[in-house]
Amino acid sequence: MSRIDCQDFHQFVDPYLDGEFEGAERADFDAHLAVCGDCRRHYEQRVWFQQALRPALRRPVTMPAEVHARLMARLATAQRPARARRALKRALLPLPAIAAAVTLFIMSTPLQGFTLVDEAVSQHCQAVPVEVPAEEANELDDWFQGKLPFEFHAPRFGDEAPVTLLGGRLSQVGSEGGARRAAYLLYGVGQHKMTVLIFNRRGQDLHELGRRYTVSGRDLSIHDAGAYRVALYQRGPIGYAVTSDLPVQDLLSLMDGAL
C-alpha cells in the first residue's frame, strides 16, 4: 500500500519523473500512481509537457536583431561600471535557449525603450514553471479571479485547434515605474511552445507596428522577432501577446479560433 497521498505526489512528481527516487521511495510513488486516476492524469500531463518542451529548450537562439541594436546603442552611452558593460556584451553572444532568455530578461528589465514584442519573446523563452497547471480555460479563469486589476478570460482556441493548455502564472509587462500585472499562459501546439501575455494596455494601440491582418473581423498584427513571431490583438482595454515559433499562417489559423 502506498504511504504517500495526492498532495505528496503532486509536490514531488517532477523528481519522480527525473528518476531521483530509488528503492522504497520510488515504490511508494509507483503504488500510488497505480491506484489514483487523478494523479495518473497529472503524471501523463507532466510527461507530455517535458517531451513537448525539451526540443525547444535545447535549440540555440540569438537575440532578435532589433533587440541587439537597441542594447548596443544603450551600451555605448550608458554610464555604468565596467563590470556591467562586460555583462551586457556577454548577453549579446549566442547562448543556449534557457541561458539567453534568462540573461535577456535580467538585463533588459530596467532599460526604457524595450517594446512589448521584446518582452513577450523574453518571457516566452524563460524556463519558469507555471503556478497553476490547468487543462481547461475555465480553470484558469477561476484561478486568476481577483489576482489581476482587470477581468480575466483565457483565450479559447476552438475544439478542433491542435492546442493543449498547460497552465499559467502571474507575470508583469513594463519596466520599473510602469510595470503592470499580467497573466502568462502556456500552451503546447504539437511539438511547439506557445505563450500568451494578457495585460491592461492602458490605451496603447497594439497595431502601430508589424504586419496587420484581419481575422474573424478583428484586427491583429504579427511581429517578427528572430526565430519567433508575436501576434498582438486587443479587446477593449485588454491586450494579448501570443508568441511562438510557428509559421505565420499556422499562427493566423489558431488566432481565427480565439478571436
List key phrases describing it.
about 260 residues; alpha+beta; elongated
Given the C-alpha coordinates, what overall shape results?
elongated
Contiguous runs where pLDDT drops below 50 for at least 5 residues: 83-114
End-to-end separation in angstroms reads: 49 Å
On the 0 to 100 scale, the average pLDDT is 77
Quaternary arrangement of the chains shown?
single chain
Instruction: Please state roughly what percent of the residues sit in beta strands, choosing from under 5%, 5-15%, 15-25%, 25-35%, 35-45% or over 45%.
Output: 15-25%
Number of helices: 9
Biggest sheet character: 8 strands, antiparallel
In sequence order, what are the helices and strands, one letter per element?
A: HHHHHHHEHEEEEEEEH
Computed Rg: 20 Å
Structural class: alpha+beta
Q: What fraction, in percent, of the residue positions are helical?
A: 40-55%
Strand order of the largest sheet: 1-2-3-4-8-7-6-5
Tally the beta strands: 8
